[in-house]
Amino acid sequence: MLVLAAVPDVQVQRLRRATAARFTFVHAANWGEALAVIRSRPVEVAVVDPLLTGEARALEIERLRLLFPSLPLILYTSLTPQLASVLLVLGQCGIRHVVFSRFDDHPTRLRQVLEAESAGAASRQLLDQLAGHLAPLPTELRWVLEEALRAPGQVQTVQHLAARARVDRRTCERWFSRVGLPSPRQFLAAARVLYAHRLLQDPGFTIEDVAQRLGYMQVKTLQQHARTYLGLTAGEMRLSLAPVEALEVVVRRFLRPSESLGVAS
């Protein structure tokens, strides 16, 4: 899982030492970089420091919260008298987890906080809702599919999926058919649409941002997939369906593979 670390270098190193096996961190040295990373890379959790610029400030973190309400935020900062009023403001924004450098940032504590917040990430919610449909698949294939749901832009073709699962394409397709799922190609495309739909609920993402994050070469391909799997344009996805409703539309088709989705496998 990719985590934005908008914190000083020393705190980035502590995060990496504590959780390197579970999370990958991308460092942002300032708030402009943080915003650019969120819009262009599949960040699922953000660790931020109100003291990033040397002055205790809430404004930039409030802005992130406003633009990307679905992005879990963790405060990782130093305990100073100037920070008290900032923490009060950010607490009112709904940010609940605060870790203080050199006070309670033991590796175990850092892991616990990150794991707790990652449960609210968009990909984790999607995985939880699809878990029952993926359970009958072989373990290695299921793991690769879960990876594809966490980062849809990184597993885009059936060949890539099969290679990562260490099976040939035909075996991969047979497994999908056996458990009542559509073709692997359809599954991957539908997963990207569902992920795109979740991202588009945040006002900070444009359709172009989402297409880039999910690895689409052209925005029109995202538009085509949105129409195929949800019957909506990408713009309409933002306004017309809640994430649960979008998932229900796609899952109904997963459970009835005989009903064509209109995409060649």
Description:
The protein is α/β, with parallel strands linked by helices and 265 residues long. The protein folds into 2 domains: 2-118, Rossmann fold, CATH 3.40.50.2300; 122-254, Homeodomain-like (Arc Repressor Mutant, subunit A), CATH 1.10.10. Helices cover 56% and strands 9% of the residues. It contains 14 helices and 5 strands. The protein has helices at residues 9-19, 31-40, 59-67, 84-92, 107-118, 122-134, 139-150, 158-165, 169-178, 184-199, 207-213, 219-230, 234-240, 243-254; strands spanning 2-6, 24-27, 43-48, 73-77, 98-100. It has a 5-stranded parallel β-sheet, with helices on both faces. Helix 7 (139-150) crosses helix 8 (158-165). The longest helix is centred in the C-terminal third of the chain and has 16 residues, at 184-199. The radius of gyration is 20 Å and the shape is globular. It starts with a strand and ends in an 11-residue tail after the last helix.
Topology:
Layout: E1 2-6, H1 9-19, E2 24-27, H2 31-40, E3 43-48, H3 59-67, E4 73-77, H4 84-92, E5 98-100, H5 107-118, H6 122-134, H7 139-150, H8 158-165, H9 169-178, H10 184-199, H11 207-213, H12 219-230, H13 234-240, H14 243-254
Parallel strand pairs: 1-2, 1-3, 3-4, 4-5
Keywords:
265 residues; alpha/beta; Rossmann fold; Arc Repressor Mutant, subunit A; disordered C terminus
Chain-averaged pLDDT? 84
- Biggest beta sheet attributes: 5 strands, parallel
Order of helices and strands: EHEHEHEHEHHHHHHHHHH
Number of helices: 14
By DSSP, the count of extended strands is 5
| Overall structural domain count | 2
The CATH topology name of the largest domain reads Arc Repressor Mutant, subunit A
- For the record, the CATH architecture of the largest domain stands as Orthogonal Bundle
Under the CATH scheme, which class of the largest domain?
Answer: Mainly Alpha
Q: Which homologous superfamily in CATH is the superfamily of the largest domain? A: Homeodomain-like
Q: Low-confidence parts lasting 5 or more residues at pLDDT below 50? A: 257-265
% residues in beta strands? 5-15%
- Structure classification: alpha/beta
Distance between the termini: 29 Å
Helical residue percent band: 55-70%
**Spatial arrangement of strands, main beta sheet:** 2-1-3-4-5
Radius of gyration over C-alpha positions, nearest whole angstrom: 20 Å
Backbone shape? globular
